[in-house]
Every structure is written in structure tokens, then in C-alpha cells.
Amino acid sequence: MGADRPLVALRVAAPVVVAKVDIGQAPADDMAGAACSKLLVLNATALVHAAYGIEGQKIVLSAALELKDLDLNELEARARDLDMAPPIKSHAP
Q1: pTM for the structure as a whole
Q2: How many structural domains is the chain composed of?
């Protein structure tokens, strides 16, 4: 991903490869509802092959690919999808 963007972690969990990016800290309880709503809106309107979510206390962006017939072009395309995802801060509640 770009120089000013977070690193992408890949995890093989057959039958899929999961790509995940830590975006940042999840908001405090008083803002959690608004943040979850915003993440769901972004998932529905701005993302095709990836999704924002909350894992523990972090906001993550993740995508999965089937491992069986995975090739480099598919993996690169998914990395570009993650890189083009709208930043959370520009859509903060």
C-alpha cells in the first residue's frame, strides 16, 4: 500500500486468505453507536470486496480470497481495493 498508508497483514486460514489492515482505535462507548453506523454505511456504499469492522478495540478493514485458485493478480487487485477504501477520518461521525 502507499507510503502514508498502514501495512496489510495476510493470514492463510484455509480455504481462504484474509487480508487485514488496522485502521485505528475504535471510539469510546459514547461514540460507538455512531461509529458502527458510519462503518455500515461505508460498507454498503463505498466498498465492494472489503469491509470495515471492529475487532477488539480496533477498527479494521478486511477482505478474503479463496485460496484454491489464488494468483498474484487477484492478490494485487485486493490490495488495491484496500488501498482505495475511503479513510475513516474523512467520514467520522
Answers
A1: 0.80
A2: 1
